[in-house]
Amino acid sequence: MSNYELPLFDTRVDNGNPATVQLVCGVDEAGRGPLAGAVYAAAVILDPHHKIDGLRDSKKLSETRRDQLAIEIKKHALAWCIAQASEQEIDQLNILQATLLAMQRAVQGLSVQPGLALIDGNRCPILPMPAEAIVKGDDKVDAISAASILAKTARDAALMALHRLYPQYAFDQHKGYPTALHLARLKEHGVSPVHRLTYAPVRAILANP
User: Fold this and answer.
1) pTM of the predicted model over 0.85
2) Pairing of strands 79-85, 116-120
3) 8-166 — its CATH code?
């Protein structure tokens, strides 16, 4: 496990002064691969005095367990924020830059600003504090796992809302990912206002309606 498990770092004593304690937030995203919907990101500062058991990569948890943990995280974290970048921003910026933008928004939206941000993956957004990218951090660092869970549950809820608006695409079943069902519905019904126009399967439908 990472030595960043607790959201505290840098307790050095400087010139005899008391140790400085700074907060650490974990940051992760959900929804880079889907053909529709926004990309979501979350930032979480955990409370070191209230451990939440079972935190791990959201993809390795059942939907029920993710929902349970999301409630615990929101209740007990020192601070949390969920943000997004829209389908239009994804098309304008590309998915990488839109993801970094969503992460930036999540960190900046925290009610308490951390001294360090730990980012899942190999790229960091531009932030006003130091940031460190950790590959597969969502299964190594509790704060990143918590962010992964909040981002994933928020995005899933958003796709359920999109399903109510566009039931013909079955977003409730595939959450926007390019499954055989989604591709078949896309071919049958055409491109919706919430599809990502720059993604290859969507472009193909637009080119051959």
Assistant:
1) yes
2) unpaired
3) 3.30.420.10
